[in-house]
Amino acid sequence: MALSGSLVLISMFPWILKFTFRGTNFTLRLLGRALLYPMATCLGSVFFGELALRLVAPERILPQLLVVALGFTAAYLCSALVPSVRNEIISFKSMLSELRLSSRVKSPTV
Predict the structure, then answer these.
(1) What is the pLDDT of residue 90?
(2) DSSP 8-state class, residue 109
(3) How far is the C-alpha of 93 from the C-alpha of 75, rounded, in Å?
C-alpha cells in the first residue's frame, strides 16, 4: 500500500511542480539545472569515497572514515573546477558576507 502511494506521488510530482510554478519565471527545466550539479557532485563523492575505500581497504573504522572523508574531499575539490559550481560557491560566499554585515548593522546596542 505504501509503495503504491509513493509511486503515485512520484508520478504526479512533475505536474504538481508545474502547477506550483505557474505564474513565476521558474520552470521544471530550471529546477533540473539547479539540481544537476549538486546531485552529480554528491554521486561523484560517493563514488570517490567508495573507490578510495576499496583501494586502501583499512581494517579499523577510524582509518575507514578518514579514507572516505578524503575521497569526498577530492570529489568536492574536483567539482570546483566546473565554472557553474565555482560561480555558485562565489555567490554563496557573497550571500554569507551580506548576512554577516546585515546582522552587525541590525544588532541592538545595550
Answers:
(1) 87
(2) P
(3) 20
